[in-house]
Amino acid sequence: MSISNFITDKFKKFTAKVNRHNALKVTNSIPELPPVGTKNRISYFHKELKDIHLNTNGATINNPIIDSIYANQKYDIYITKITIVIADSDIKMHKFGNISQLTNGWSLIVNESSVDNFLYQNAQTNGHINARTGSGEIFGSGNDVNRMKEWTRFDNDALVVRLDIDKIIPGGIRLGMGTKDNIRSVIQDDLTTLDAFEIHFFGYRHVE
Prior knowledge:
The chain is mostly beta strands. It has helices at 3-7, 126-131; strands spanning 13-18, 24-29, 42-49, 65-70, 76-88, 95-96, 99-100, 106-112, 115-123, 147-148, 157-164, 173-175, 182-187, 196-206. It starts with a helix and ends with a strand.
């Protein structure tokens, strides 16, 4: 796209300033509302990996259970927040749910441009998951940090952790349109006794 077409794009708004090198820097962002009569270029996105623990009997380092969300062929996906829910009969920081500390651990991996980056790498306990959020958004204290009591119909408790990705990466994690970008949950231990294990991805779709 030429500079003139770029700057006159009716779907963008612009800010310009001169930096310390006396160079003009022009930045753009999507306006809050689309022009009247046009199609939305940004829409809400939510994807969940649910009950991912149910078929993990026999999961090991050499036989991991992998669930993924993938880039789309028609639009960019931006993940701004991730919520992790682990429910069990009890939640203690030295356990995973109410399972004794895992042998191999659980990982959550972002793959962008064929490069892996770990949001979680071999987390073995609820405490590991809490400590590695990179976020100050917590509730409770001690063994009750991020613990939601009587969360299920069985009155089981749940660890509920939120990662505010957009506070770390401006705009969030981008799964580029037409690419092989993905986010993978990798389980390497038997988690079948958990009451629930869910990962929710929130963000937006951006159509050019």
